[in-house]
Amino acid sequence: MLIVDARGLLCPEPVVRTQRAVKDELDELTVLVDAQAAKENVTRFAESRGYTVSVQQEGLDYTLSLHRA
Amino acid sequence: MKKRNFWVILTGVVIGIAALALSALGNPGNMGFCIACFLRDTSGALKLHSAEAVQYVRPEIVGMILGAMIIAMLTKEFKPRGGSSPMTRFVIAIVVMVGALMFLGCPLRMMLRVGGGDLNALIGLVGFIAGIFVGTLWMRVGFTLKRAYAQSMTEGLVIPIVAAVIMALSVFLPALFAASESGPGSMHAPIAIALVVGLVVGGLCQRSRFCTVAASRDAMLFKDFSMLWGFVAVIATTIIGNVILGKFHLSFADQPVAHTDGLWNFLGMALVGWGSVLLGGCPLRQVILAGEGNSDAGITVTGFVVGAAICHNFGLASSGKGPTVNGMIAVVVGFVLLTLIGLFNREKA
After folding, report:
1. If pLDDT is split at 50, 70 and 90, which confidence band does A24 have?
2. Cα dihedral B319→B14→B10→B265 (10° resolution)
């Protein structure tokens, strides 16, 4: 399972890295972020590309699991 | 309407109205807000430069920092972090300020000027978008300033505390600071109003993640138009408001605190756009992030203040009469620096 570690990165890097990862038409991947804004941006991007996003918060980090049917 | 669009558009409308109000209450024309000019004015008040026409502690900036901090704390988003290439950010910030003072405005002021009918700002807008486009190309080839790490509470509180102290001192011990008696630095809305407006705008910008660069950048990179709505909202509100107030003048000539040199208006804002993409946000967003406890943004804001001082100490800033030769050289040097910074800060995916 591909894990994109975008923790600590400022705009627009979390989405850029996620965009690069989904270019290969993956059905699932995980993105790690540690800021609300990044969580929102990656979620919005993923949903616009047809992924469902589930978010798990662990301390200061968010684990975003992206799935595509 | 999606929740994000709501907050972004609301922020844009409030910024437009607030800017019109502040200009009507004393701020210079088409300058209800200008992050670059206001940091430059504050830099002058601190006597970091001695350009007598532009020295004044701008409460709007202080308000925005504190408003962002308060809202971030309430929503548990105040998370001090830093360590992402701070010195490089400092340099890019100086370059961005050179570009902004070449054009005579930050991206937000550029939008307010467009809203006032200033066609020079429209040229600046085209340059801004071109610069953002170049910045996105660098993002695509792997530009990164590397990640930031969690910092202590005190590290994150330095900027808000410093801003509050400077504000308090300027009110209670004004003799410490320089204050313009003529020129744009002498034109200001009442302190209390500017501060409160800053607080409200800062809070809204924090909540909506408002960023003038994101509007174009996210549309180019991800076909995400959500921030663009806010950008349009600012301009639309300002146009409508200026028309109602009878202050809309469509022209190139005789615009307040502006010059008509199209090439250098374009290049100045192109430098701002490119540099801001590399920094991860426009000057307004940097101020908000600094209020949120991000010490990389704090260093960036410090770079803006120092950059403004350098501009005025070495004749790099434009005036209503147009750009200076030193300023033109500085903008070209700025483009070279951003290219070098781009070349040396890439990571393959």
Report:
1. confident
2. -10
In whole angstroms, what is the distance from residue A58 CA to residue A62 CA? Answer: 6
Length of chain B: 349
Q: Is B222 on the interface with A (CB under 8 A)?
A: yes
How many Cβ pairs closer than 8 A exist between chain A and B?
60
The beta-carbon neighbor of B147 closest among A7, A19, A20 is A7
> Inter-axis angle of helices B295-313 and B35-45, to 10 degrees?
70
Report chain B's mean pLDDT, rounded to a whole number: 96
Q: Which residues contact B280 (CB under 8 A, 6 or more apart)?
A: A10, A11, A12, A13, B145
- Give the Cα separation of B288 and B66 in Å (integer): 9
List of residues 6+ apart from B73 with CB closer than 8 A:
none
Calpha distance B169→B163 (Å, rounded): 10
Which token pair is B136?
A: 């996105």
Q: What is the pTM of this model?
A: 0.96
User: Which amino acid appears at position B284 of this protein?
Assistant: L
What whole-number distance in Å separates Cα of residue B242 and Cα of residue B108? 16
Give the SS3 label for residue A34.
coil
Say what the ipTM of the complex is.
Answer: 0.94
Torsion of CA B325, B326, B330, B331, to 10 degrees: -30
Residue with tokens 């969580």: A39
Task: For residue A60, give how far its alpha carbon lies from the nearest alpha carbon of chain B (Å).
Answer: 9
d(CA A37, CA B145): 18
The answer to whether A26 is a known catalytic residue is no
Count CB-CB contacts under 10 A for residue B176.
13
What pLDDT does B349 receive? 56
User: Could you tell me which of B335, B24, B40, B35 has the C-alpha nearest to residue B185?
Assistant: B40
